[in-house]
C-alpha cells in the first residue's frame, strides 16, 4: 500500500512500540487515528507528531463493547480507513500456577479476542484495497516458560491472521502478521530485562519494529519474524520442536530464578 496520505488506525498508540510506529508513519505522510485508554497521553502523542493537525485520537478500551462501538461510530462519521494496525497488547511474566484466572482472561482478551473483533468490525469500513496488520510476537511461534497464556494468545493471532488473509482473497484487503522479538518497552520488568541479558537474548528498540511495520505495509508481506536467530528458532520449532525444548531446558534454572524474583 501507499502510506503517504493514507488514513491508518493504530491501537496501543501510547505504548513504546505504538509511539515509534506513530512517529514513523507520520513521517511517511500518513493520517493517523490514535487509539488508547489514556486521553492525556494520546493528546501528548498527537502533539509530538509531525503534522499534528492531520491526526485524530479516540479514547477507547478495545477490550470492551463500548470501546469497539466508539471506534466504529467515529469511523462511520468521519472518513474511509486504508489500514488498521492492531498493536495493543500486554504480557505478564509468571508461572501459570501463580496467576489469577482474571489475569489470564484479561491477557487473552487484549492480545487475541479484541484484535479479532476489531478486524471483524473493520471489514465493514476498511477501504478496498486496504490492509490489516496484526502485531504478534516470536512467542506466538515458540512456547516459552513464564509466558503460557501470552504465547497462546499470540499463536492464536498468527493463525487467525493467516486464515483471514486467505478468507479475504480477491477482496482487495490483506491481513498481515508481524512478530517482533524482545523489545525495549515498559512491558518488560527489570527482572525480565536482566534475564534476557543473562540468557543472551537480543532485544530491539521500538524504532526497529516501526521500520519493519513500514516495510510490511508498503510491500504487503504476509508474515514476518524480526531478529536472528529468533526467526530460525521459530521455523525449527515447527519442524523439530524437541530441539527447541532441549535448548530451553538448559536455560530452565535461570528462567525460574527470575520468575521467582517477580512472583515473590
From TrEMBL:
The organism's place on the tree of life at top rank: Bacteria
Keywords tagged on the record: Oxidoreductase
Matching Pfam families: adh_short
Record flagged with keyword Oxidoreductase: yes
Transmembrane segments: none
SUPFAM superfamilies: NAD(P)-binding Rossmann-fold domains (SSF51735)
Domain Ketoreductase residue range list: 6-183
SMART domains assigned: PKS_KR
InterPro entries in the record: KR_dom, NAD(P)-bd_dom_sf, SDR_fam
Family: Belongs to the short-chain dehydrogenases/reductases (SDR) family.
Annotated protein name in UniProt: Short chain dehydrogenase
Lineage: Bacteria, Pseudomonadati, Pseudomonadota, Gammaproteobacteria, Vibrionales
Amino acid at each position: 500500500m501507499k502510506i503517504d496520505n493514507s488514513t491508518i488506525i493504530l491501537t496501543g498508540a501510547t505504548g513504546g512500540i505504538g509511539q515509534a510506529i506513530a512517529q514513523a508513519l507520520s513521517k511517511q505522510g500518513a493520517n493517523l487515528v490514535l487509539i488508547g485508554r489514556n486521553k492525556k497521553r494520546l493528546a501528548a502523542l498527537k502533539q509530538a507528531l509531525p503534522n499534528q493537525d492531520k491526526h485524530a485520537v479516540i479514547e477507547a478500551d478495545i477490550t470492551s463493547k463500548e470501546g469497539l462501538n466508539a471506534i466504529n461510530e467515529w469511523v462511520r462519521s468521519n472518513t474511509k480507513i486504508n489500514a488498521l494496525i492492531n498493536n495493543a497488547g500486554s504480557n505478564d511474566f509468571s508461572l501459570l500456577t501463580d496467576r489469577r484466572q482474571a489475569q489470564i482472561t484479561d491477557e487473552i482478551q487484549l492480545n487475541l479476542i479484541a484484535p479479532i473483533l476489531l478486524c471483524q468490525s473493520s471489514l465493514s469500513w476498511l477501504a478496498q484495497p486496504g490492509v490489516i496488520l496484526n502485531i504478534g510476537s516470536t512467542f506466538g511461534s515458540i512456547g516459552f516458560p513464564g509466558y503460557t497464556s501470552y504465547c497462546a494468545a499470540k499463536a492464536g493471532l498468527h493463525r487467525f491472521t493467516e486464515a483471514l488473509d486467505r478468507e479475504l482473497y480477491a477482496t482487495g484487503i490483506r491481513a498481515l502478521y508481524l512478530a517482533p522479538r524482545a523489545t525495549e518497552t515498559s512491558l518488560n520488568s527489570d527482572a525480565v530485562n536482566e534475564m534476557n541479558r543473562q540468557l543472551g537474548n537480543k532485544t530491539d528498540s521500538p524504532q526497529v519494529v516501526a521500520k519493519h511495520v513500514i516495510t510490511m505495509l508498503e510491500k504487503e508481506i504476509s508474515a514476518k519474524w524480526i531478529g536472528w536467530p529468533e526467526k530460525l528458532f521459530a521455523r525449527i520449532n515447527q519442524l523439530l520442536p524437541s530441539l527447541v525444548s532441549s535448548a530451553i531446558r538448559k536455560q530452565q534454572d535461570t528462567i525460574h530464578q527470575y520468575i521467582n524474583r517477580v512472583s515473590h
